[in-house]
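agent> Task received from the user: take the single chain below, predict its 3D structure, and emit structure tokens. No templates, no multimer pairing.
agent> Plan: (1) validate residues, (2) run structure prediction, (3) serialize to tokens, (4) report one or two observations.
agent> Step 1 OK, no nonstandard residues flagged.
tool_call: predict_structure(input=
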Amino acid sequence: MSSRSFSTDPERLKELIVEATVDCYGEEEQHSGLLTMIEDEVVFPFDAKVIGEIVQMTGMAWPDHGFGLQFTCEKNGTTYTIDADSIEWVEPPPEGFEWIEAYFAWSRYL
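)
tool_result: status=success, residues=110
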């Protein structure tokens, strides 16, 4: 996982995870619950670094199968799909970034 320059209080992350997964049975439903909250709460577009370059994150991409979180990003007019672990936050953090951090905290326990 890449280093991100913002961190969220671990207790706050737990609260977000519980909010997203309260009615979920099993890891697949929990994963869907968290991705739904990211889709609903994170405001796109936002800037982030990928491999040291600032790119514009234009949206979220659901994985074709299994677990994961991907973003679509744009750099010099080309659109890419990247793994969310590849991003580093830049100032200002996007509105709703805590939901992405909650996803990372949840995924560490899979």
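agent> Step 4: summary for the user.
The CA atoms of residues 70 and 84 lie 5 Å apart.
agent> Done.
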